[in-house]
Design a protein that fits this description.
The protein is α/β, with parallel strands linked by helices. The chain has three domains: about 190 residues, FAD/NAD(P)-binding domain (3-Layer(bba) Sandwich); about 110 residues, D-Amino Acid Oxidase, Chain A, domain 2; about 35 residues, no CATH class. Helix content is about 35%, strand content about 30%. The chain is built from twelve helices and 18 strands. The strands form three sheets. Strands 1, 2, 8, 9, 10, 11, 17 and 18 form an eight-stranded mixed sheet that branches. The protein has a seven-stranded mixed sheet with strand order 6-5-13-14-15-12-16, with helices on both faces. A hairpin with a 2-residue loop joins strand 10 and strand 11. The longest helix is centred in the last third of the chain and has 21 residues. The structure holds flavin-adenine dinucleotide. The site of flavin-adenine dinucleotide (FAD) has 41 residues, from helix 1, strand 3, strand 9, strand 12 and strand 16. Flavin-adenine dinucleotide binds next to helix 1, strand 3, strand 9, strand 12 and strand 16. Keywords: FAD, Flavoprotein, Lipid biosynthesis, Lipid metabolism, Oxidoreductase, Phospholipid biosynthesis, Phospholipid metabolism. It comes from Fermentimicrarchaeum limneticum. InterPro entries: FAD/NAD-bd_sf, Geranylgeranyl_Rdtase_fam, Geranylgeranyl_reductase, GGR_cat.
Length: about 400
Amino acid sequence: MKTDYDVIVVGAGPGGSFAAKNAAKGGASVLLIDRRKELGAPVRCGEGLGSHWLKELGLKLSPKAISAEISGSVLYSPDMKRAVKIQNPETKGYVIDRKVFDKDLAIDAGRAGADVIVKTEVYDVIKKDGKPCGVKACSMGERLEATCKVLIAADGGESTVARMAGMNSTATLYDTDFGIEYEMVNVECEDLIEIYFSRNAAPRGYVWVFPKGKDVANVGVGIGGLEKGNAVEYLDKFIKNNERFKDAQTVAIKGGLIPVGEPLKELVADGLMVVGTAAHQVDPIHGGGMALAMEAGGMAGEVAAKCALEGKTDRKHLFEYESRWRKRVEPKLMRRLRLRKVLEKLDDGDFNAIFKYLNDNDIDRLIKGDYKPVVEKVLLKRPQLLKVLSALI
Ligand SMILES: Cc1cc2nc3c(=O)[nH]c(=O)nc-3n(C[C@H](O)[C@H](O)[C@H](O)COP(=O)(O)OP(=O)(O)OC[C@H]3O[C@@H](n4cnc5c(N)ncnc54)[C@H](O)[C@@H]3O)c2cc1C
């Protein structure tokens, strides 16, 4: 096997496979490494993906990667007295099958020319004069060393590669959500993503039901780090207290950590780039990160190939990825983070009251980051929230 590459990407999730594909398309020699023997498995995801992303990312889903088509979302108040349904062209999407999807993306990277190896765990980063220039890995029980000009860390929420390369990439516990999800059968579903807000049911998080078919769904909960209890207890309680799940059977258990605070302060260093959940490029409101990882991976792969082929792989040149990402994506995420920080301060009484006044247009505005008119509407009815909500204006 070849052991010297222009670009090595660690992690064949959506971010890493996109980075590898784009770097290979840019003419670089690329190695994509993953520790899993089957990409995408075990699943650690609700598997929801908005269809507008397909166009933005130039992506086509294979029919096998689609579990269900979604027309919109429905949001429930904590007391379940009010449900707001949002259905418009922008709320369309899919619940996908990550085991198929992740493999499809790695296949695309392989077709673009990247070498792909699975069941290969990177345990150290090789450095020269402090600059990353390769990896040490355990591949099917054998030691493997490979060198590169640019190393891309796309190793997800429990990322270690950036840290091994010398960059501080840890998320604080407070800004990490703990997610757990059961794939269940005998759960009647419409083609809607269901979201349940409640401090009692999911402190600093939410409960979701994502349909994977007419009677199969991913039923999950995410709770904020440092909250009392654990996510499994919250999920079991939600299911037990809901008549709808009386015949439901769990056929898979999925879960994982989601960094929902600020993106990393640095996304590049000499010879190094960090993308996807490893870089905390996750939507702070719903914890979705597949599309953001692919978007960042695409940019990183392009820049990595260009820099590697020009022999200019210092921080200054790799920074093109970071500046593009910070200009195009970061402002949206920071606006969403502001909303999250406000929502974290509301209790169930506030949520119930707010739900009474909001309609689908208001929720749509919130999703699009147009906070002011919604805040004004809520404050007319609930002026005591002025201090908390003023952070959004
Ligand atoms: C419970 C839960 C529900 C979620 N629901 C959704 C959702 O509905 N929609 C959505 O968009 N996002 C969701 N997310 C987030 C989403 O799963 C991630 O944001 C997304 O997978 C990020 O892609 P990535 O490529 O950055 O990392 P990952 O998909 O995590 O891929 C990282 C890859 O790196 C590999 N790896 C790690 N360390 C090493 C190593 N040392 N050596 C070799 N390989 C390594 C792993 O095996 C893995 O394949 C959810 C997350 C959780 C935990």
